[in-house]
Amino acid sequence: MIVNKFAVHAGIASEARRATTGKGRPGRAPHTGSGLPILKTEAADTTAKLMLVALGFAWGLTWPAMRISLDEIPPLSMRVVTLGLGAGVLFLVGWFQGRSFALGGLKHALHLSVAGILNVLSFSLLSVIAMMFAATGRVAVLAYTMPIWAALFAWLFLGERFTRARVMALVLCATGMGVLIWPLARQNSLIGLLIAISIAVSWAAGTVYVKWARLTGDSVVNAAWQVFVALVIVTLLLPVFEGSLHLTQAHALAIFGLIWSGLVGSGLAYFLWFAVVRRVPAMTASLGVLSAPVIGVISTALLLGEIPTVVDVIAYGMIFAASICVLLPGR
Length: 331
Description:
Layout lengths: L11 H8 L22 H29 L4 H22 L9 H26 L4 H8 L2 H13 L5 H22 L5 H23 L5 H23 L10 H26 L4 H8 L1 H14 L5 H18 L4
Helix pairs in contact: 2-10, 2-12, 3-4, 3-9, 3-10, 4-8, 4-9, 5-8, 5-12, 6-7, 6-8, 6-13, 7-13
């Protein structure tokens, strides 16, 4: 659950060019907004829907899994393992599919590194730090305010038009965050929520950066390299802040949560994501992924007993509606 879920499309257009070699060729399917051909058969449509459901559960269930691991494993040790597993799965998938791992020059490598820091590193570290100070459900929902921040940054730096739907999204998001934050502000316990908001802001900055940089190349390989960049940085930070890898003290449930977060939340989930965006329009895929924070909140309540308050539910509803608004086309 660490690579930019709405902007890891970097390189998708180039994949489409490899898959389609000319106009008017027989048997070519229409294309999604991401440039990938839509597989229009009924079986493919059903498969895509099932994969989107599986993706929502993979990312949603990763939130309580991280919480369980974090109770017994320090954050950097946890992230070294999850990032290592996630990168390993993505590189393995790329290798099995015969994809090229070439970085395509220094400029491309630098862009991937910046994207990896904004998208992967910030999400990986800030999410676990935020959960040390705030309820997991609140962190998950605030992290998924990314589309609203991305719309704002795209308007500021890319000159994209600010539609009425986006204005409504900003109003709903600001109101929802205000409802969520105000009771905690009176108790001086805002640090966790502010860190969670910074996840969304950094994630949005990464989204806009990827679009600005116009990254090319294989999307799965680009995602793998971004995870690898984050893995290298976290590995370098580990001896400074934690001395060494601390795993032996963890019990079986924490280890299971650790493995789930790496293999399922990072590796398998991104394999599903790239398969989904080949089959459905990018808008459909992005809206489908919004099920992840909902599943995260519900699963956290059921598995960990973190029951949201009435105020939380109202705020979650506003933020969720804001995310839908910003992803819908509008005038």
